[in-house]
Amino acid sequence: MDKDTRKVLQELERQGFAVRISKGGHPMVYKDGVRITTFSGSASDRRSFRNALAPLKRAGFQWPPTR
Hints:
Elements: H1 3-14, E1 18-21, E2 27-31, E3 34-38, H2 46-58
Antiparallel strand pairs: 1-2, 2-3
């Protein structure tokens, strides 16, 4: 898993989302028991990372974190 994805997953957990790793190694993000999105196991292109962030932002995730 690349460092950008790791940072996002840590921030997701800090903001109250649950992160589980699938059998195939893909991080799946849940909020209140409902799956919001699944990240690619390896971010081969930037667009897939941004596509995974979009539903998270709609669910209330703040990225980048405000200071």
